Amino acid sequence: MASLLRAAATLGLFPRRGYCSRGAQLSVPWCPWDSVGGNAEGELSKGFVEALKAVVGSSHVSTAAAHREQHGHDESMHRCQPPDVVVWPQNVEQVSRLAALCYSQGLPIIPFGTGTGLEGGVCAVQGGVCINLTHMDRILKLNPEDFSVVVEPGVTRKALNTYLRDSGLWFPVDPGADASLCGMVATGASGTNAVRYGTMRDNVLNLEVVLPGGRLLHTAGLGRHFRKSAAGYNLTGLFVGSEGTLGLITAATLRLHPVPEATVAATCAFPSVQAAVDTTVHILQAAVPVARIEEIAGHNGASLFSWAKEAEERRRLWAARHSAWYAALALRPGCKGYSTDVCVPISRLPEILVQTKEDLKASGLTGTIVGHVGDGNFHCILLVDPEDTEEVRRVMAFGEQLGRRALALHGTCTGEHGIGLGKQQLLQEEVGAVGMETMRQLKAMLDPQGLMNPGKVL
């Protein structure tokens, strides 16, 4: 890597100076964008692009507008600018060299998986280099006797479970979208199975991380996949939910679970939100077997109880739940969706859901409430015309009000979507001044130039 940089400098491809954001009005001696011809868009210099190609190959680097635009947003309504270049590394060695190259030139680094996030986590707010990790899609090692598997960042949850189909094992964390597993690690994803199997925080055993300057870290030690440890700081937990701000996750060792012998799903209707939530809370508090749920649901006024026992029936039932985002978008064709989530102690769930439903009616906004309320987590999906500034303002105000309601009930401003661009102020209110300062110190230690996914979380 050092020889590559020395050669590039010798050839005059780019001088060794600091990074300059396209949007910043700063007076600096150099930016790694070509200023020949007065290019107002600030394209990256040809020399730097050639240096990227020297690492991964010409076919794996693109400055095309279509590729840049595709990688400049996720499923959220946040308006963002695209990166200056997109790179597709094929292995961890290339990721390490890319990180060292970008860091030496002061260029922002934005990791990218499947782009299914909901808080603007992949937005290139300062331009820079988007590193798309989806070409690294190998399942590296399955340890069936130890109930663990090692995957590269391009492996999605559906691909993993297809691979595991004949092993008697599965990976149960299910956020709905077919997200990449390392992306799920980075966002601290959760889902409909969290009550029984936990979130990503409970199912990650070890991580391989390329740090901002290119160094390689194995958070639990190289090759280790133990179930528990009391050895030092929990480095693995530090990177789960870090949203790409501390490093690039290039492999994850995940906890697997036995496939249940039998699974039954059901649907039913309730006369009110309060009745539906009360049923969930009563089931959890009573710890009753599944056979008695229909008794409790009926007691709370449920009707039209329908069981789905066969696998195909269950898939159809859950497909409706997993398609809630797109079903909500269909309520106002042409509008954008804004999804926000919170999580509260289960005892406060009926209270906040009833309040939220009233707030939604009072706001005059079009939207719906969905959730996996067994862990106190639910989502509001609102439809908004991004060109209507007043409607956008009301949507953002609704989201802030919901987040503060959750905090007032000793909950969190996000159960699984993450902080990204949209919840930074709520995070400060949640963890307090000392908590924020501690996070900033950790960020400064690992990423002293502030180049890893800048503008997110902190």
Question: Care to give the gist of this entry?
Answer:
Helices cover 36% and strands 17% of the residues. With 458 residues, the chain is of the alpha+beta class. The strands form 5 sheets. Strands 5-6-10-8-9 form a 5-stranded antiparallel β-sheet.
What are the main properties of this structure?
458 residues, alpha+beta, 5-stranded antiparallel sheet, 4-stranded mixed sheet, globular
Topology of this structure?
Elements lengths: L1 H9 L35 H11 L4 E2 L2 H6 L14 E3 L4 H13 L4 E4 L16 E4 L6 E5 L4 E4 L5 H7 L5 E2 L10 H7 L6 H4 L2 H4 E7 L5 E3 L16 H5 L8 E8 L1 E2 L6 E5 L3 H14 L6 H7 L3 E6 L2 H12 L1 H6 L6 E8 L5 H15 L2 E7 L4 E8 L4 H20 L15 H23 L12
Parallel strand pairs: 2-4, 3-4
Antiparallel strand pairs: 1-2, 5-6, 6-10, 7-11, 8-9, 8-10, 12-13, 14-16, 15-16
Q: Could you characterize the architecture of this molecule?
A:
Helices cover 36% and strands 17% of the residues. The protein is of the alpha+beta class and 458 residues long. The protein has a 5-stranded antiparallel sheet with strand order 5-6-10-8-9. It has a 4-stranded mixed sheet with strand order 1-2-4-3. It has a 3-stranded antiparallel sheet with strand order 14-16-15. Strand 15 (366-372) and strand 16 (377-384) form a beta hairpin.
Summing up helix and strand content along with how strands pair, one would put the structural category as alpha+beta
- Low-confidence spans: 1-42
Q: Roughly how many Å is the radius of gyration?
A: 23 Å
**How much of the polypeptide forms β-strand, as a percent range?**
15-25%
- Average pLDDT metric: 86
Shape by Cα distribution: globular
Give the CA-CA distance, first to last residue: 31 Å
Number of separate helices: 16
Question: Describe the biggest sheet?
Answer: 5 strands, antiparallel
Q: Strands across the major sheet, in which order?
A: 5-6-10-8-9
Number of E-type strands: 16
Helix content: 25-40%
